[in-house]
Amino acid sequence: MSDARGLLLTPGAGGGADHRTLVDIETALTDRMPVRRHDFAYRRAGRRAPPRAENVVDELLEDLRKIAAELGVPPAGMFLGGRSFGGRVCSMAVAAGAPAAGLVLLSYPLHPPERPERLRSAHFGQITVPCLFISGTRDPFATPDELREHTSALAGPVTLRFIDGARHDPNTIAARRAVVEHVENWLDGLEG
Description:
alpha/beta
């Protein structure tokens, strides 16, 4: 079995694969592993509003096989993740059985803003791979305490990292640097 690793990064609902944070992660990891930033079909078709996350999972499962082959990485060697909606879709795909080395979930949308009762975590118990959650301390989609509580349902090891003062899109240079450092340090820990 190959020990090759790769990373597939997907964007949030209203953004594209050219999101600054995704570009920063790709740039930082380019000498370490192949990274692919990937737009979902609705975005490639020019639409801004996504379909329901459940409807994008099958698309991701199909795209993952192609992307892993293009990168020369076995699907089980791929880390999957992304921002908000993209990370959620990746987590749902892994819960549905997609092979993966781990999940990198940036600004995971645990619930809609001001709607904490509408949780998006029912699939967490089916996830057995290592998971990294990076979120701002002022993210209206998930407070640090909410993430601590609900990620305890994950069957795999969980690492939580918070960016002090950041909201849903940590858009300062310092916040984006912190995201990249958290991803690099997490990968170092998995390889160590």
